Amino acid sequence: MQTPLKRKLFNAFMSLHILHHAQKEAIYGSWMMEELAHHGYDVSYGTLYPLLHSLEKDGLLVKEEIIFEGKRRILYRTSPLGDQTLIELQHYIRELTGEIHEN
Q: Is the separation of the CB atoms in 76 and 63 below 8 Å?
């Protein structure tokens, strides 16, 4: 059973994954779904795309529409604010994982 708090936490972790990968290179939805599944997340398009749109609305991602193999594809990259936010959050992530691994 997924509680509202558990859902918020999973969305936060997925957002961090998205920002991490979008900082390294442009990402698109179906690739990100596969990447998240690789890390154990069971996420649907109905969860992923609102999350991508929310990150874009908050100014953390920017999108670019391209034509790839005759089809429209939307690519996402981190914005300067997204880069800065990820750097700030990495400090907290390292601190938390260090404490978790101590126990």
A: yes
Is the Cβ–Cβ distance between 39 and 17 less than 8 Å? yes
* 3-state SS class at 6: helix
Closest CA to 20 of 51, 61, 59, 54: 61
Which residue shows structure tokens 């795309």?
Answer: 49
Cα-trace Rg, the chain: 15
Say whether 93 sits in a helix, a strand or coil. Answer: helix
Enumerate residues 6+ apart whose C-beta is below 8 A from 17: 32, 35, 36, 39, 41
Q: What is the distance of C-alpha 69 from the center of its chain?
A: 25
CA dist., res. 103 & res. 100, Å (int): 6
CATH topology assigned to domain 12-102: Arc Repressor Mutant, subunit A (1.10.10)
pLDDT in tens, 33-51: 999 999 999 899 999 999 9
